[in-house]
Amino acid sequence: MALETSLEKPAPVRAIANAISGWIDRLGAVWVEGQVTQVSRRPGLATVFMTLRDSVADISVPVTCSRVMFDGLATPVTEGASVVIHARPSYYANRGTLSLQAREIRMVGLGELLARLEQRRQLLAAEGLFAAERKRRLPTVPQRIGLVTAANSAAERDVIENATRRWPAVAFEVVHAAMQGHRCASEVIEAVRRLDAHPEVDVIVIARGGGSVEDLLPFSDEGLIRVVAAARTPVVSAIGHEPDSPLLDLVADLRASTPTDAAKRVVPDMAQEASRVREARTRIRQAVSARLEREQHTLDAIRSRPVLAEPATVLDARHDELDDLRHRIRRSLETRLDRAADDIDHRRARVQALSPLATLQRGYAVLQDADGHVVTSVADVAAGAGLSVRVADGRVHVTATRTEPIEEHHG
What we know:
There is one protein chain. By secondary structure, the chain is an alpha/beta fold. It contains 13 helices and 13 strands. It folds into four domains: 13-115, CATH 2.40.50.140; 127-132 and 142-268, Rossmann fold; 305-345; 358-399, no CATH class. The strands form three sheets. Strands 1-2-3-5-4 form a five-stranded mixed beta barrel. A five-stranded parallel β-sheet has the order 7-6-8-9-10, sandwiched between helices. This is Exodeoxyribonuclease 7 large subunit.
């Protein structure tokens, strides 16, 4: 029922709010289709908050649902997903806001597809298939490139022409496969396995042009993702255009935005490489020249030193030192020899002074009897006895006629 109001009898805010709430309540539960733009899961709350946006008009409405229902969905709800919600409109009079209390959420169309892909991405990421440490480094100059693409496609021409233009010597091993449809995933898997087993293929490029999400769906196939992850040969993903992002981009060792970009990133530009070689050669030549110049300066400095400029000077100084040492040794030896000679003379003089012969030379004599015994007393000599007198230069044989003792006088 409409409220009866006038300038004289205005209705209070609470009356209008309650009336609006009553009118909205009479609407009952409705099915609403839209796109999820925001999802908020606040810690500790049993309610999940979302925003549902109209796919055509710039209109959105808040949505609430229980955390139990939200977590129990078979396909997780993500931002950007298109959904159909069975909800009851509710007007909060205290805040003057309108929201939908969701009782059931269903994914529809592209939104459901994207949600499934997101769920698959999360599961594969949890296994570590997208980890950076699993990425293999591409060869600097591949000799042979394995190419998986559709027959007679623009992607094939772009890759081959651009790669050959940049590096004419590169060779290709092309395996054609369906790039969309129900046979796409299985044929691409077989092609990757075949090229991975080829002993001369250095890198594998999977290329196709852009397309809708449905067209690119095979390149998010779980079987293909696992085959690429297990491949020994590095794999480059060149699927679609820059905004396209199938799961193959995440598991590949390198993601190229387009097939042309793949050709540029897989092989180097020969002209650029030749220019770099020339620059490197110039830098090396300059570095060697600078090193040689420094070493030459060092050699010149060493050669300018007196020891190398005039080596004879050092030898002459050593020669003078040797002469001086020789003279000193000679003088020392002569001094020691003179001292030894003097010592010998001294010792000889002392020995000669103590020699009995020297005593005899001073006039003394030694008297011996006939038996050769030295006579030291007159008592040992009888009158008429034959004696021998030892003098300095010989012996005198005498006969004792008489003996005469000498009395000692003691003072």
